[in-house]
């Protein structure tokens, strides 16, 4: 069931989104060579507790994971792209780190992800991260009243195709609001003009993620972490976006962004 939000409810989600943007800014500053993933997990816990927010990940037990998840953030490194389980790993120079987090404040959820390069960047990794960011920007631009879900999906796929990356459609974007995962599903590839018509009040987590090689993914033994099947590097970008009469409104940024 798709639930449309009122302007007041979108404003409440905006509060949550702004908090998450600040949290990722904090972790981005701390993510340097020599830092353990568990330190970043602990810092995220501290910030969530200080704000009085509630993690959407803690005790999360979906059908696709080996639940319950007992962390507050997904930290995925290099060939890991989604649902990375924080563990005892020390970041090395030139690692790609993808950070994905969702929390609730006063009953309203926001969800976002960011990929960064730790230390010295490799040009091919910069290109990969840039592609996900451009795909996210294209998806946001397509998230306008009167368009359809397929327009968002086609926008993401178009950027991937331009860069020469293949697209996996097993996991993609989704609705959110009172909970982390709501209808509709937003694939990262699709046909323009197809699918659910976009209306003001619809709130979506848009999240293109690409691999540098094969689009196939495999599970880690931890039951959560998803990696590229061929060991190629990966990147993931995500924002929570509200569709309004005036166009898309990005909620997971510290500055309000309309497209």
The averaged pLDDT comes out at 96
Please state roughly what percent of the residues sit in beta strands, choosing from under 5%, 5-15%, 15-25%, 25-35%, 35-45% or over 45%: 25-35%
* Strand order across the largest sheet: 7-6-8-13-14-15
CATH third-tier fold name: Creatine Amidinohydrolase
**Annotation field: number of helices:** 4
Contiguous uncertain segments of 5+ residues: none
Please provide the count of β strands: 15
What pattern of helices and strands is seen along the backbone?
A: HHEEEEEHHEEEEEEEEEE
Distance between the termini: 27 Å
* CATH homologous superfamily designation: Creatinase/methionine aminopeptidase superfamily
Mind describing the biggest β-sheet?
Answer: 6 strands, antiparallel
Principal-axis shape: globular
CATH 2nd-level architecture:
Alpha-Beta Complex
**What's the structural domain tally?**
1
Quaternary state, please? single chain
Domain Peptidase M24: 21-245
Family: Belongs to the peptidase M24A family. Methionine aminopeptidase type 1 subfamily.
Enzyme class: hydrolase
Binding site for a divalent metal cation 2: 111, 174, 207, 238
